[in-house]
Amino acid sequence: MTTTHPDWSLDTSWSLDQTFASSSGAVRWAALGPADAAPVVLVHGTPFSSYVWRGVARALARDHRVYVWDLPGYGASEMRAGQDVSLAAQARVFTELLAHWGLDGQEPPAVLAHDFGGCVALRAHLLHGARYARLAVVDPVALAPWGSPTYRLLGAHADVFAQLPPALHEALVREYVGSASHRGLHPAVLDRLVAPWCTEAGRPAFYRQIEQNDQRFTDEIQGRYGELALPVLVCWGTEDTWIPVARGHELAGLIPGAELRLIEGAGHLVQEDAPAELTGELARFLNAGPRTVR
Fold this sequence. Notes:
Elements (H helix, E strand, L loop, with lengths): L17 E5 L2 E8 L6 E5 L10 H7 L4 E5 L17 H14 L9 E5 L1 H13 L5 E5 L10 H8 L1 H4 L4 H13 L8 H8 L7 H10 L4 H7 L9 E6 L8 H9 L4 E5 L6 H4 L1 H12 L8
Parallel strand pairs: 3-4, 3-5, 5-6, 6-7, 7-8
Antiparallel strand pairs: 1-2, 2-4
Helix pairs in contact: 1-12, 2-3, 4-8, 6-7
């Protein structure tokens, strides 16, 4: 199924102009919006990059200081053999980044996280003491069981798939990334999302990040969602085939006072399928009432 995309979806100017030396390698990041505005941090999931947040980031940057970054092993950030890119490592790196940005003090940020970025944000908060003003999770990896059949197959046989010739590897990644959208990705957007995984460093990095992640990283925190004592928004695409919308209802029910907002007609990659609707929900949430810090 195809759809007409707004002009900004084809933006090729997205770039991250800053570098942070994290415990898991060099992280590329950028900040948008007024330096003195309330901070917002965006966290992407797998197998994506901060590029999926470009429209939301620029819209929110009118009224907020918006921080975007590529997780270690993703996008423009460092990819290397032996790198720890597990969900446990990503949560530690996120905590390091918040300190680097000076967002671990009196004015902690709002955090908006997609896919396994949701697990990263939840682990950083529950296990590492990262403080947020509020938290929005979009189709997050948060509840067991998780991982599509394709994801589990790739993780179980990463050494085999890593031997694919470059052309077959690219075809596999394109099909996999494309399946995250219900409405269909514009070819230029798909090219941008796939490109980091098709370099000499990116091909093994694609399988590395899948191989290193498993359900234990959510098992360690799933029983603690009732401890969340800050405003939480759960957004979910109703046509998500990677993580069914029923998980959204379940997750919202585990978090005291959480709001659930369903995005009609959107698949797992809500930022591409319904950017206006998602941005509206996130902006409303960010501007709703007094800021609560935990």
